[in-house]
Each structure stands twice: as structure tokens, then as C-alpha cells.
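hi! just following up on the protien thing from before. the input was this:
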Amino acid sequence: MVTTRAHADPFPPPSPPKSRSSGVKKWSHTPTPLTLLWLLVSVPLVIWDTFYVLLRPHTMTGGYLHAPIWKPYALYGTVDHVYGWPAFDAKDGFTAAQASLNVMETLGYLLYLAIVWREGGREGKGPGVTGKLGERVEGRWGAAAALGGFAISVMTLSKTVLYAMNEYHSGYKNVGHNDASTIFFLWVVPNGAWVVLPSYMVYVFGSDILEGLMIASDLTGGPTRASVSRKEE
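and the predicted 3d structure came back as:
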């Protein structure tokens, strides 16, 4: 009898593909302590500021709503004429225009705080579980919070930079009458906070969104529809 020696199959069957989801980090959004602290401080201040502007002249010096709530503006209105009588008498619309944007900005931040408060730490728990501020927010609510926070932070930063650029390109007509010390402590420092902290928030929210996009790319694998269509063109 003739026997043949068994040979290894030169074309072994392919190994089953590994699951793309194995080992992939699940994305979530967690508000940072500094973000929450800034919002809890800045949102009431912006509401206070917005009502001062939109209720002028009653909130200004001599108005029946001026004291005690808006009395600090008696000083600030002499430092920055955007908030004082010169801009109001000149019917300068910039002050009210930026206050109108404050309304949209504040509503956006309040919505963000409501989401992270209601949904924080609730993923996978029963419907009766109350969320906790500062905890991780997963799923669609986490994505909505990160995207909304990013958009509103960009809005805040852009609006503050526009405010400063308006002064620069007008030859500092509203604050140029002050000495250097007054400008620094009563104009640069207060307004600078609305540049530094929103910039930080833009970075934090943007990093969260970028991380989510990278995780989604790892899960889907291969080129996206957009990249395929570009290659075909």
C-alpha cells in the first residue's frame, strides 16, 4: 500500500476578525471642577450685567432701580463709558447688542448645567435615580453637553474679544480717559477673566469632542463616506 505524507495546508483559513469594540474606551463627558466653579460664579454676574443694560436708564445713576442692586455701576460707568451715560446718550447700540447675546449665552450655560446635573452618573441606572453635578455623563446627553458647552464657550470668548477690539479700533474712546492703574484693575482684570476661563473651557470641551471622534473612528474603522467620495472625485 502506498501512503502519502500529510502536508500542511498552504492556504489556512483566515482567523475570525476581532471585535472592533473590544478594548475600546467608552466615551463620556465629565465637567471639570474649574468649569463648574466658573459657571456658578459667572452666570449670576452675567445675568446681573444683562439686566443692568437692558433696563437702562432706570438702573443707572439717578434711576429708581439703581440702588442697591446696580449701585456698583455708578463707578464702573465712569471707568467704561460703554456702561455709562456717554454711550447711552449717544444711543450707542453696541452695549445693548452684546447684552442681547448675553441672554443666549446664559440660556446655553443654564441648559448645560441642567444636563450635567440631571444626567451625571445616571448611565445604566434606573429612571428614578437622581443625577449628581460633577459626575460622568455618557451617551447622547454627554455628547449634547460637550457640544453645547463648546459652542457657548466659543461664543463667550469671541464676544469678549470683540468687546476689546471695539475699544482698540475706536482709539479707546470709552476707557482712554483713565490712568493706567484704573484701566488695569477695573477694566483689564475683570474683562480678562472672560477671556482666560472661556479659553480654558474651549480647550476642555474641544478635547472631549476630539476624543469622542477618535473613538468613533476606531469603532467604525476604514475610510469615512466623506473620504471615499473625495477619492472618487
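The mean pLDDT is 86.
The chain is about 60% helix and 0% strand.
cheers
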